[in-house]
Amino acid sequence: TLSQALGLNNSAVTGLVGRMQKNGIIERKGCAEDGRASRLFLSDEGKNKLPILYPLIQQVNEKLSEEFSEEELETVSRFLNKVIDIFK
Questions:
Q1: Are residues 31 and 2 in the same domain?
Q2: pLDDT of 45 strictly over 90
């Protein structure tokens, strides 16, 4: 499910999840409804990193959008949403 939501193949997501788990950012727990599945949860350490990440994300978004008008940003957003819909 996570692979589909992110638009990545299973091996890419497995590697990403493994690295995040190794770094203590997420915790993996078995799924009670489906023994083959795992559920991912943000760890306390991961939650502690959120106040650091939000300003960085804001800075990146501002930098990427500073040269575009609102109309251009809306066009890009519509395009990217269509691409996402195609690969769902």
A1: yes
A2: yes
38 and 54 fall within a common domain = no
- What pTM did the predictor assign? 0.63
Whole-number pLDDT of residue 46: 95
pLDDT at 88: 67
Domain count of the fold of the chain: 2
- Whole domain around residue 80: which residue ranges? 47-88
Compute the Cα dihedral for 73, 75, 77, 79 and give only its sign: negative
Q: How far apart are CA 20 and CA 2, in angstroms?
A: 14
> Taking a C-beta distance cutoff of 8 angstroms, is the pair 17, 39 a contact?
no
CA torsion through residues 75, 77, 81, 84, sign = positive
Q: Residue 48 to residues 26, 28, 69: CA-CA distances in angstroms?
A: 12, 18, 35
More reliable by pLDDT, 3 or 48? 48
